[in-house]
TrEMBL record:
NCBIfam families: uppS. It comes from the Archaea. The keyword Transferase applies. It catalyses: geranylgeranyl diphosphate + 7 isopentenyl diphosphate = tri-trans,hepta-cis-undecaprenyl diphosphate + 7 diphosphate. The active site is at 33, 81 (proton acceptor). Its cofactor is Mg(2+). Transmembrane segments: none annotated. This is Tritrans,polycis-undecaprenyl-diphosphate synthase (geranylgeranyl-diphosphate specific).
Length: 311
């Protein structure tokens, strides 16, 4: 009886969360933490925890596609994981190899045109895992509807250091002018894989840290972060929807702050005259042709109208 009531309550809460969500992030990155602790609490070995966690991964992929997320990055194996006991590492390598080949052959992956890619120092992985990476990438390289990035032998500092060394080498060789070292140039040299800026980072397992994960793409974009207590095998659709809601709340707050700052700037330029203020907003619209500028200037006008700036 209790289990049935709980399922009904969870179903109702899930529907409520889904109705509350107006939009979704383009790129979600997930730190899948807690497999080993989950296994210990259930009297199992680490291998069982990792296997159950792999099932959660498949569910999350479906949720992303259902909600309209366009890119998902999973932190599957960090550079720090090389320090784990050899038997646990070998099991992880077996699991990663098997899941990559399984995903590459899945009907769902091909129906939804999922492009699978590995991010990280893949050459440090055993040959069987490298072969599985190559197989998955080759099988899905023609797809572009959805990107699934699997971070393997990944470390954010190592990624940034590699890009810095690569850039310095190009400058020293005379192939790159220092004046041409731009954000786009650095981005191009990050593990040689184009990745969208991260909109939302999710970490399971209770720890509140992002563990050196995609620092360039997440910190530079001021990504929203959602920490939750469930271990990765326990991560539910409700948890995922709550993470999306956190992203939406952060975006709404960011838009409000942007509007307030823009209004203050316009007032500083135009003074308190509503006529002059509208003229400045009109000039901003002309001078900012990029995507989003029209929305911003419309918001400015509405904010000024609500504020009742004196004539």
């Amino acid at each position: 009886m209790y289990a049935r009531v709980r399922r009904l309550a969870e179903g109702a809460y899930e529907r409520l969360l889904r109705r509350d969500i107006d939009g979704t992030p383009d790129h979600v990155a997930i730190i899948q933490d807690g497999n080993r602790r989950y296994a210990r609490e259930h009297g199992s070995g680490a291998a069982d925890g990792h296997r159950e966690g792999a099932q959660t991964t498949e569910q999350v992929l479906r949720w992303c596609q259902d909600l309209g997320v366009e890119e998902l990055t999973l932190y599957a194996f960090s550079t720090e994981n090389f320090e784990r006991p050899p038997e646990e590492r070998e099991h992880l390598f077996d699991l990663i190899e098997g899941k990559l080949r399984e995903f590459a052959d899945k009907e769902q992956v091909h129906e939804n045109e999922v492009c699978i890619r590995a991010l990280g120092e893949v050459d440090r992985l055993p040959e069987r895992v490298r072969d599985a990476v190559a197989y998955a990438e080759e099988r899905t390289e023609g797809y572009d509807r959805f990107r699934l990035n699997v971070a393997l032998a990944y470390g954010g500092r190592a990624e940034l250091l590699g890009a810095a060394r690569d850039t310095l080498g190009a400058v020293a060789a005379g192939d790159l002018d220092p004046a041409d070292v731009t954000v786009e140039e650095i981005d191009r040299r990050l593990y040689a894989r184009p990745v969208r800026d991260v909109d939302l980072i999710v970490r399971t397992g209770g720890d509140e840290r992002t563990s050196n994960f995609l620092p360039w793409h997440a910190n530079g974009n001021e990504a929203a972060v959602f920490f939750c207590a469930p271990y990765w095998p326990e991560f539910s659709k409700i948890d995922f929807l709550r993470a999306i809601r956190t992203y939406e709340s952060r975006e709404a707050s960011w838009r409000h702050t942007r509007r307030e700052r823009a209004v203050a700037l316009v007032r500083a330029v135009a003074g308190e005259s509503l006529v002059e203020t509208r003229e400045v907003v009109g000039r901003l619209r002309e001078q900012l042709p990029h995507v989003g500028s029209e929305e911003l200037t419309d918001e400015l006008t509405a904010e000024l109208d609500r504020d009742g700036t004196a004539e």
